[in-house]
Amino acid sequence: MVPNGKKSVVLAVLSSFLLPVCSALAAESPQEQRHELMEDVGGGAKTIGKMLEGEEAFDAVAALSALQTWNHAAGVFGDLFPAGSDSGYDTEAKATIWSDRAGFDAALQAWAEAVDAAIAANPQDLGSLEAAAGPVFEKCKACHEDYRVEKE
Amino acid sequence: MRPGLKRALQMLLAAAVLAALVAWWLSRPQGLAAADLPRHDPDPRNGEVLFHAGGCASCHGDHLAGGLELATAFGTFRVPNITPDREAGIGGWSALDFVNAMQRGVAPDGRHYYPAFPYTSYARMTLTDLLDLKAWLDTFAPVSGNVAVHDLRFPWNFRRGLGLWKLRYLDDEPVAALAHADARLERGRYLVESVGHCGECHTPRDRFGGLDRSRWLAGGPSPESGPESGSDGAGKVPNLTPHANGLAGWSERQIARYLKTGFTPDYDTVGGSMVKVQENLARLSDSDREAIAAYLKAVSPVP
Fold it and tell me: What is the pTM of this model?
């Protein structure tokens, strides 16, 4: 019989291995994978946004972690739009992603570069976080306008 | 023919003629007179604020040369040139012509405008604001080139009928009753209900194309949709009232921030035809955006 304390440790260790497997299984289609990735990106934006709005205290570690989330997403996002993934799963991807692939790639590149610059700036106070994250927020908005369909 | 029947037919004909005359008289365009205009030295800077609050460029284009097509259930509306070009635009208009177009939906030649041009909202603008707005429009460069006419289905292509439509749907009274209206709420109501004309998209319309004010700002199908629109704009327009289906979960601050930055409380970004609206509203003052937010939290919640 494993004591309760140990049991929860075992469970925690097990689930830490299982969780990534589960989420990978849950998101098999590129449509679902990119949707989940964007949810992560939105989570990072919320973390930084709340600091900039003064709704939460500045936290350099949490801010950097959010920037790393963006960095990871920006690195792989472009691979999740193979031919044939333009419909299904309630995707909000606009057809222009495939008809104007070069433009889409350029927009993603601009996003990745803005994130790189933000991480390089290593913001240690609110002012530098704002200066670092501001250009990234602009890229979110610009790319959504051109390459995302508005549903509802 | 028997005398009785003949007489009955004559009376019927007379009644029909009388009804037609009454309908014609009721549907006459009703403009203001020159004497109704106040003495006012126009302020183009205030006109610029109103220009952005109204989002004139969203439909008329950055140069105001028009041409945008609005595909609706009634047919296709084409947005006109409102540059100061004397021939293609409104350069030849007097202040009275402008006020009559904006508040009464009446063209200088006396014809009715279709309410795709939202004079039903602009009717609530003050005359001095309208004169300021005209002064700002006058600063644009003239662009020649006429826009094609609307392409509407019967009976909507019968313009005179709009006079009867206006009797039912056009007035200059505020829509929302505000219990404790301070200056900020009054300003918010003015921006939303008149120049901002938010209700024109965010309030559902009835089958005659008039706003259903019992569902003020409760959202609904996009007016740019319908059997003939064939556009991908056939989406839904969001509910702006403080109901769970609307903005109940948004604070005033979050609404004001969204209007300034385009980011929702969840840090998603503004989309669709709201992008241009938001970018226009980003050019207003913080206090004007806060007034809009305060008003939206003060209207009646509608599911």
Answer: 0.86
